Amino acid sequence: MGFIHHNISEKLIKNNIKPSYQRIKILGYLSSSMDHPTVEQIYNDLLPEIPTLSKTTVYNSINLFIEAGIIQAVELGDHETRYDYIVIDHGHFKCIQCGGIFDFPLENDAFASKFLNGFMVKDKNVYCKGICGKCLANKNQ
Question: For residue 73, what are the β-bridge partners?
Fold first, then answer.
């Protein structure tokens, strides 16, 4: 855990963010979480370990991380903002049965469109919803 702690601290420092204990824990949580947590999930999961943590601290830290480009906010159609440590272009698939959220790669030209000539794209978001392979397999048994 010390190694991960050190890498998170370095990442914050490189992005001109003071590596406070709470910020290190929040970013560490996001780096190890693959389920694209909400602020509520982050807060509830870290509260037993950091009893002095507030939701305001989580929100403020998240906003700092987004501004620095360390994480991204993801809207997945559930009226909740979720957060993703992976900031390279990729898509998200949400299973309507189990609620799982899965990342999938995008081809480099997935957004190529003559319509977008003359536009500057700053954010790309591909979101799919359906039933994941595991739920489909369970349904078919």
Answer: 83
pTM of the model: 0.78
Higher pLDDT, 119 or 124: 119
The pair of three-digit structure tokens given for residue 37, joined into one six-digit string: 């947590």
Hey, what CATH class is 88-140 in? Answer: alpha beta
Strand partners, 93: 102, 128
Task: Provide the pLDDT for residue 2.
Answer: 43
What would you report as the CA-atom Rg of the chain, rounded to the nearest whole angstrom? 17
Domain ranges of the chain: 2-83, 88-140
The torsion of the CA quartet 7, 11, 17, 21, rounded to 10 degrees, works out to -20
Check: CB of residue 23 under 8 Å from CB of residue 17: yes
Q: Point out the least confidently predicted range of 22-36, 75-89, 100-114.
A: 100-114
DSSP characters for 15-66?
A: TT----HHHHHHHHHHHH--S---HHHHHHHHTTT-TT--HHHHHHHHHHHH
- 5 Cβ neighbours under 8 A, 6+ residues apart: 24, 28
CATH code 1.10.10.10 for 2-83: yes
d(CA 5, CA 17): 15
